[in-house]
Fold:
Amino acid sequence: MNFHQYYPIDVVNGEGTRCTMFVAGCEHQCRGCYNQTTWSLYSGQVFDKIIEDRIISDLNDTRILRKGLSLSGGDPLHPSNVATILALVQRVRQECKGKDIWLWTGYQLATLSDSQKLVVELVDVLIDGKFEQELADCSLPWRGSTNQIVHRLSIKSINT
Structure:
């Protein structure tokens, strides 16, 4: 998996101060997407153990308290990204006690594959649905168009 940007301190993509990563790869290619540079799976830089360890370290840093991790893109649930994202969210659950996970995807919750569902089972907040330019509304919290849904999920937390 590749990623485009990692922000160790972010207050825009989810509630509270967070760590945020934008992954590469999106097959939806929504008209009006603000992040078109992330569409190619091969763009950005390789996600490796170094960046994964940094995310875990940043989430556990007591000098700057982060509420959790936000994953966007591109699309973290792109079939080519799912295995790496699953390993990352599992590690966050195991090593970052009390942290939440937010994830943005163009896929809809009701139509996820079994492997995508494995990731979502470990996510606290899922924002789903393609961005639709004709439904765009910049006043919406956490999403760009009115068709997108913010799901606050009940998870069996291995985090507490």
User: Anything to note?
Assistant: The radius of gyration is 15 Å. The first strand starts at residue 2 and ends at 10. The helical segments are 49-60, 82-95, 114-120.
